[in-house]
Design brief:
- The chain has helices at 7-19, 39-50, 101-105, 159-175, 195-202, 206-218, 224-234; strands at residues 27-29, 81-83, 117-122, 130-135, 155-156, 180-184, 221-222, 238-241, 248-251, 259-262, 276-285, 288-300, 305-306.
- It has one domain: Transcription Regulator spoIIAA.
- The model has no long low-confidence stretch (mean pLDDT 91).
- The chain is 26% helix and 21% strand.
- The strands form four sheets. The protein has a six-stranded mixed β-sheet with strand order 3-4-6-8-10-9, with helices on one face.
- By secondary structure, the protein is α/β, with parallel strands linked by helices.
- A hairpin with a 7-residue loop joins strand 3 and strand 4.
Protein backbone atom coordinates (compact mmCIF):
# COMPACT_ATOMS: atom_id res chain seq x y z
CA UNK A 1 0.00 0.00 0.00
CA UNK A 2 1.46 3.31 -1.05
CA UNK A 3 -0.61 5.99 0.68
CA UNK A 4 0.41 4.81 4.17
CA UNK A 5 3.91 3.43 3.82
CA UNK A 6 7.49 3.26 4.98
CA UNK A 7 8.93 6.20 3.01
CA UNK A 8 12.46 4.78 3.11
CA UNK A 9 11.23 1.43 1.79
CA UNK A 10 9.40 3.11 -1.07
CA UNK A 11 12.48 5.10 -2.03
CA UNK A 12 14.56 1.91 -1.90
CA UNK A 13 12.08 0.23 -4.25
CA UNK A 14 12.36 2.98 -6.84
CA UNK A 15 16.14 2.87 -6.52
CA UNK A 16 16.08 -0.89 -7.24
CA UNK A 17 13.76 -0.33 -10.20
CA UNK A 18 16.16 2.27 -11.56
CA UNK A 19 19.12 -0.08 -11.15
CA UNK A 20 17.26 -2.95 -12.87
CA UNK A 21 15.36 -0.87 -15.43
CA UNK A 22 17.11 -2.41 -18.44
CA UNK A 23 16.65 -6.01 -17.27
CA UNK A 24 13.03 -5.75 -16.11
CA UNK A 25 10.20 -6.22 -18.61
CA UNK A 26 7.42 -5.01 -16.31
CA UNK A 27 6.45 -4.01 -12.79
CA UNK A 28 3.46 -5.87 -11.37
CA UNK A 29 1.48 -4.62 -8.37
CA UNK A 30 -1.16 -6.98 -7.02
CA UNK A 31 -3.52 -4.43 -5.49
CA UNK A 32 -4.01 -2.31 -2.36
CA UNK A 33 -2.09 0.54 -3.94
CA UNK A 34 -3.84 2.98 -1.57
CA UNK A 35 -4.96 2.55 2.04
CA UNK A 36 -8.48 3.66 1.03
CA UNK A 37 -10.32 4.58 -2.13
CA UNK A 38 -10.95 8.14 -0.94
CA UNK A 39 -9.82 11.03 -3.09
CA UNK A 40 -7.10 12.06 -0.65
CA UNK A 41 -5.46 8.63 -0.51
CA UNK A 42 -5.82 7.89 -4.22
CA UNK A 43 -4.32 11.24 -5.15
CA UNK A 44 -1.40 10.59 -2.82
CA UNK A 45 -0.79 7.14 -4.29
CA UNK A 46 -1.09 8.44 -7.84
CA UNK A 47 1.77 10.88 -7.29
CA UNK A 48 4.17 7.94 -7.35
CA UNK A 49 2.97 7.01 -10.84
CA UNK A 50 2.58 10.46 -12.37
CA UNK A 51 5.24 12.81 -11.01
CA UNK A 52 8.17 13.14 -13.38
CA UNK A 53 11.68 12.08 -12.50
CA UNK A 54 14.29 14.77 -12.11
CA UNK A 55 16.69 14.65 -15.06
CA UNK A 56 18.32 18.01 -14.38
CA UNK A 57 22.00 17.73 -13.39
CA UNK A 58 21.68 20.51 -10.82
CA UNK A 59 18.88 18.69 -9.01
CA UNK A 60 18.95 15.26 -7.39
CA UNK A 61 21.46 14.03 -9.96
CA UNK A 62 22.78 11.35 -7.61
CA UNK A 63 19.24 10.00 -7.02
CA UNK A 64 17.47 10.01 -10.42
CA UNK A 65 14.65 7.83 -9.04
CA UNK A 66 13.33 10.89 -7.15
CA UNK A 67 11.20 13.70 -8.53
CA UNK A 68 11.89 17.44 -8.21
CA UNK A 69 10.46 17.39 -4.68
CA UNK A 70 12.77 14.57 -3.65
CA UNK A 71 9.95 12.00 -3.61
CA UNK A 72 10.11 8.52 -5.23
CA UNK A 73 8.61 8.12 -8.70
CA UNK A 74 7.87 5.27 -11.11
CA UNK A 75 8.43 7.61 -14.06
CA UNK A 76 12.00 6.31 -14.24
CA UNK A 77 10.54 3.11 -15.75
CA UNK A 78 9.26 3.26 -19.34
CA UNK A 79 7.92 -0.30 -19.61
CA UNK A 80 4.51 -1.67 -18.53
CA UNK A 81 3.35 -1.16 -14.94
CA UNK A 82 0.66 -3.79 -14.45
CA UNK A 83 -1.84 -3.34 -11.62
CA UNK A 84 -5.05 -4.89 -10.34
CA UNK A 85 -7.51 -3.31 -7.85
CA UNK A 86 -7.51 -4.46 -4.22
CA UNK A 87 -10.20 -4.14 -1.57
CA UNK A 88 -8.48 -1.14 0.08
CA UNK A 89 -8.42 0.69 -3.24
CA UNK A 90 -12.22 0.78 -3.21
CA UNK A 91 -12.99 1.87 0.38
CA UNK A 92 -14.93 5.09 -0.11
CA UNK A 93 -15.43 5.93 3.58
CA UNK A 94 -14.92 4.63 7.11
CA UNK A 95 -17.53 1.93 6.49
CA UNK A 96 -15.45 0.57 3.60
CA UNK A 97 -18.29 0.66 1.11
CA UNK A 98 -17.01 -0.24 -2.38
CA UNK A 99 -16.43 3.00 -4.26
CA UNK A 100 -15.54 3.82 -7.86
CA UNK A 101 -12.91 6.58 -7.57
CA UNK A 102 -10.01 4.18 -8.04
CA UNK A 103 -11.09 3.45 -11.59
CA UNK A 104 -11.00 7.16 -12.41
CA UNK A 105 -7.65 7.93 -10.82
CA UNK A 106 -5.89 4.87 -12.22
CA UNK A 107 -7.65 4.65 -15.59
CA UNK A 108 -4.32 5.00 -17.40
CA UNK A 109 -3.13 1.78 -15.75
CA UNK A 110 -6.38 -0.11 -15.16
CA UNK A 111 -8.50 0.40 -18.27
CA UNK A 112 -10.95 -2.46 -17.73
CA UNK A 113 -13.22 -0.64 -15.25
CA UNK A 114 -15.13 -2.08 -12.30
CA UNK A 115 -14.98 -5.86 -12.20
CA UNK A 116 -13.01 -5.94 -15.43
CA UNK A 117 -10.45 -8.30 -16.93
CA UNK A 118 -7.28 -6.79 -18.39
CA UNK A 119 -4.61 -8.24 -20.68
CA UNK A 120 -0.98 -7.18 -20.99
CA UNK A 121 1.28 -8.76 -23.60
CA UNK A 122 5.03 -8.88 -22.98
CA UNK A 123 7.45 -7.76 -24.16
CA UNK A 124 5.06 -6.18 -26.69
CA UNK A 125 1.80 -6.85 -28.53
CA UNK A 126 3.50 -7.48 -31.89
CA UNK A 127 5.57 -10.48 -30.83
CA UNK A 128 4.50 -11.52 -27.32
CA UNK A 129 5.87 -14.46 -25.38
CA UNK A 130 3.94 -13.86 -22.15
CA UNK A 131 0.40 -12.72 -21.40
CA UNK A 132 -0.48 -11.46 -17.92
CA UNK A 133 -4.25 -11.50 -17.48
CA UNK A 134 -5.56 -9.60 -14.45
CA UNK A 135 -9.02 -9.96 -12.94
CA UNK A 136 -10.83 -7.63 -10.54
CA UNK A 137 -12.57 -9.79 -7.91
CA UNK A 138 -13.36 -6.96 -5.48
CA UNK A 139 -16.91 -7.00 -4.07
CA UNK A 140 -19.68 -5.24 -5.97
CA UNK A 141 -21.70 -4.81 -2.78
CA UNK A 142 -21.29 -5.28 0.96
CA UNK A 143 -24.30 -7.60 0.70
CA UNK A 144 -22.13 -10.11 -1.14
CA UNK A 145 -19.91 -10.74 1.91
CA UNK A 146 -20.45 -14.04 3.71
CA UNK A 147 -20.28 -12.68 7.26
CA UNK A 148 -20.70 -9.41 9.18
CA UNK A 149 -17.82 -7.02 8.43
CA UNK A 150 -16.67 -9.39 5.70
CA UNK A 151 -16.82 -6.64 3.09
CA UNK A 152 -13.70 -5.09 4.65
CA UNK A 153 -11.48 -7.87 3.34
CA UNK A 154 -13.36 -10.36 1.22
CA UNK A 155 -13.37 -10.74 -2.53
CA UNK A 156 -15.59 -12.93 -4.68
CA UNK A 157 -15.09 -15.02 -7.80
CA UNK A 158 -18.16 -13.76 -9.64
CA UNK A 159 -19.36 -16.17 -12.31
CA UNK A 160 -19.48 -13.57 -15.08
CA UNK A 161 -15.95 -12.37 -14.34
CA UNK A 162 -14.63 -15.92 -14.21
CA UNK A 163 -16.26 -16.69 -17.56
CA UNK A 164 -14.66 -13.60 -19.07
CA UNK A 165 -11.28 -14.57 -17.60
CA UNK A 166 -11.60 -18.02 -19.16
CA UNK A 167 -12.76 -16.56 -22.49
CA UNK A 168 -9.85 -14.12 -22.67
CA UNK A 169 -7.37 -16.85 -21.74
CA UNK A 170 -8.71 -19.05 -24.55
CA UNK A 171 -8.59 -16.11 -26.96
CA UNK A 172 -4.93 -15.49 -26.16
CA UNK A 173 -4.14 -19.17 -26.71
CA UNK A 174 -5.82 -19.03 -30.13
CA UNK A 175 -4.53 -15.64 -31.25
CA UNK A 176 -0.99 -16.00 -29.88
CA UNK A 177 -0.12 -19.72 -29.98
CA UNK A 178 3.49 -19.03 -28.97
CA UNK A 179 2.44 -17.03 -25.89
CA UNK A 180 2.39 -18.38 -22.32
CA UNK A 181 -0.19 -17.12 -19.80
CA UNK A 182 -0.16 -16.27 -16.11
CA UNK A 183 -3.00 -14.74 -14.10
CA UNK A 184 -2.91 -11.98 -11.51
CA UNK A 185 -5.60 -11.19 -8.94
CA UNK A 186 -5.54 -9.40 -5.60
CA UNK A 187 -7.04 -11.96 -3.24
CA UNK A 188 -5.04 -15.10 -2.37
CA UNK A 189 -7.07 -18.23 -3.20
CA UNK A 190 -7.18 -20.88 -0.46
CA UNK A 191 -4.52 -19.12 1.60
CA UNK A 192 -5.99 -20.80 4.68
CA UNK A 193 -4.77 -24.15 3.27
CA UNK A 194 -1.18 -23.03 2.74
CA UNK A 195 1.53 -24.64 4.84
CA UNK A 196 2.78 -21.27 6.07
CA UNK A 197 -0.66 -20.26 7.36
CA UNK A 198 -1.25 -23.62 9.03
CA UNK A 199 2.17 -23.50 10.71
CA UNK A 200 1.45 -19.98 11.94
CA UNK A 201 -1.94 -21.07 13.25
CA UNK A 202 -0.39 -24.07 15.00
CA UNK A 203 1.92 -21.81 16.97
CA UNK A 204 -0.97 -19.77 18.39
CA UNK A 205 -3.19 -20.43 21.38
CA UNK A 206 -6.39 -19.11 22.90
CA UNK A 207 -7.54 -15.64 21.87
CA UNK A 208 -4.66 -15.19 19.45
CA UNK A 209 -5.73 -18.25 17.47
CA UNK A 210 -9.37 -17.14 17.61
CA UNK A 211 -8.41 -13.72 16.24
CA UNK A 212 -6.53 -15.26 13.32
CA UNK A 213 -9.45 -17.59 12.61
CA UNK A 214 -11.74 -14.56 12.50
CA UNK A 215 -9.40 -12.70 10.16
CA UNK A 216 -9.23 -15.79 7.95
CA UNK A 217 -12.94 -15.46 7.26
CA UNK A 218 -12.76 -11.70 6.82
CA UNK A 219 -10.04 -11.89 4.16
CA UNK A 220 -11.07 -14.89 2.09
CA UNK A 221 -11.82 -15.04 -1.62
CA UNK A 222 -15.38 -16.35 -1.85
CA UNK A 223 -15.75 -19.29 -4.27
CA UNK A 224 -11.99 -19.50 -4.76
CA UNK A 225 -12.34 -23.19 -5.61
CA UNK A 226 -13.98 -22.23 -8.90
CA UNK A 227 -10.95 -20.17 -9.86
CA UNK A 228 -8.52 -22.96 -9.00
CA UNK A 229 -10.59 -25.46 -10.99
CA UNK A 230 -10.66 -23.31 -14.13
CA UNK A 231 -6.95 -22.56 -13.84
CA UNK A 232 -6.24 -26.27 -13.75
CA UNK A 233 -8.43 -26.94 -16.79
CA UNK A 234 -6.72 -24.21 -18.80
CA UNK A 235 -3.19 -25.19 -17.83
CA UNK A 236 -2.54 -21.99 -15.88
CA UNK A 237 0.38 -22.95 -13.68
CA UNK A 238 0.93 -19.68 -11.82
CA UNK A 239 -1.28 -16.99 -10.28
CA UNK A 240 0.18 -13.79 -8.83
CA UNK A 241 -1.69 -12.27 -5.89
CA UNK A 242 -1.28 -10.18 -2.74
CA UNK A 243 -3.80 -9.22 -0.01
CA UNK A 244 -2.46 -11.25 2.94
CA UNK A 245 0.63 -9.08 3.64
CA UNK A 246 2.49 -12.40 3.97
CA UNK A 247 4.58 -13.78 1.15
CA UNK A 248 4.22 -17.46 0.35
CA UNK A 249 4.24 -19.91 -2.56
CA UNK A 250 1.74 -22.77 -2.39
CA UNK A 251 -0.48 -25.00 -4.52
CA UNK A 252 -4.28 -24.87 -4.64
CA UNK A 253 -5.06 -28.12 -6.43
CA UNK A 254 -4.61 -31.79 -5.58
CA UNK A 255 -2.26 -32.39 -8.51
CA UNK A 256 0.07 -29.54 -7.45
CA UNK A 257 -0.07 -27.89 -10.85
CA UNK A 258 -1.54 -24.47 -9.97
CA UNK A 259 0.90 -22.46 -7.86
CA UNK A 260 -0.02 -19.27 -6.01
CA UNK A 261 2.76 -16.70 -5.77
CA UNK A 262 1.57 -14.50 -2.91
CA UNK A 263 3.57 -11.34 -2.31
CA UNK A 264 3.99 -9.63 1.03
CA UNK A 265 3.35 -5.92 1.31
CA UNK A 266 6.11 -3.84 -0.24
CA UNK A 267 5.85 -0.82 2.05
CA UNK A 268 3.38 -1.67 4.84
CA UNK A 269 3.89 0.06 8.20
CA UNK A 270 2.52 -2.82 10.32
CA UNK A 271 5.07 -4.93 12.25
CA UNK A 272 2.97 -7.99 11.35
CA UNK A 273 3.59 -7.54 7.62
CA UNK A 274 6.24 -9.18 5.48
CA UNK A 275 7.76 -6.08 3.89
CA UNK A 276 9.10 -7.62 0.71
CA UNK A 277 9.49 -7.16 -3.01
CA UNK A 278 10.14 -9.95 -5.49
CA UNK A 279 12.23 -10.37 -8.60
CA UNK A 280 10.44 -12.91 -10.82
CA UNK A 281 12.28 -14.68 -13.63
CA UNK A 282 9.64 -16.39 -15.77
CA UNK A 283 11.03 -19.33 -17.75
CA UNK A 284 8.97 -20.15 -20.85
CA UNK A 285 9.25 -23.24 -23.04
CA UNK A 286 6.89 -24.25 -25.85
CA UNK A 287 4.37 -21.52 -24.97
CA UNK A 288 4.16 -22.74 -21.38
CA UNK A 289 5.53 -21.30 -18.16
CA UNK A 290 8.01 -23.99 -17.15
CA UNK A 291 8.89 -22.32 -13.87
CA UNK A 292 9.08 -18.96 -12.13
CA UNK A 293 12.29 -18.35 -10.27
CA UNK A 294 11.64 -15.93 -7.44
CA UNK A 295 14.03 -13.91 -5.34
CA UNK A 296 12.44 -12.29 -2.29
CA UNK A 297 14.09 -9.07 -1.15
CA UNK A 298 13.20 -8.41 2.50
CA UNK A 299 13.25 -4.98 4.11
CA UNK A 300 16.12 -4.51 6.56
CA UNK A 301 15.09 -1.63 8.80
CA UNK A 302 18.53 -1.32 10.39
CA UNK A 303 20.27 -0.80 7.06
CA UNK A 304 17.28 0.90 5.38
CA UNK A 305 17.42 -1.35 2.35
CA UNK A 306 16.03 -4.55 0.83
CA UNK A 307 18.31 -7.58 1.16
Amino acid sequence: MLSVYKPDALEAITEIIYAWRNELHAIIISGDIAITGTEKDLKHAMELFKTSANPHPTGHWETPWLNYDGEPTFQIFNKPIIIVPGNHDRYDNRLALPGELFYRYFESYWTAGTGGIQLTLLPNSEDPVLAIICSDFTLDSILHATQPMGHFGQGKVYDDRLKELVRLTETVAFSYPSCAVVWMIHFAPKFRDSQKFQEHLGNLKGLAKLKVRLMEGLTKLIDDGKLAEEAGKLGIRYIFCGHTHVYDNYYVDASNKVCILCSGSATCVSPNCDTTIHLRDIVIENAQVKEIRSQALIWDADNQTFL
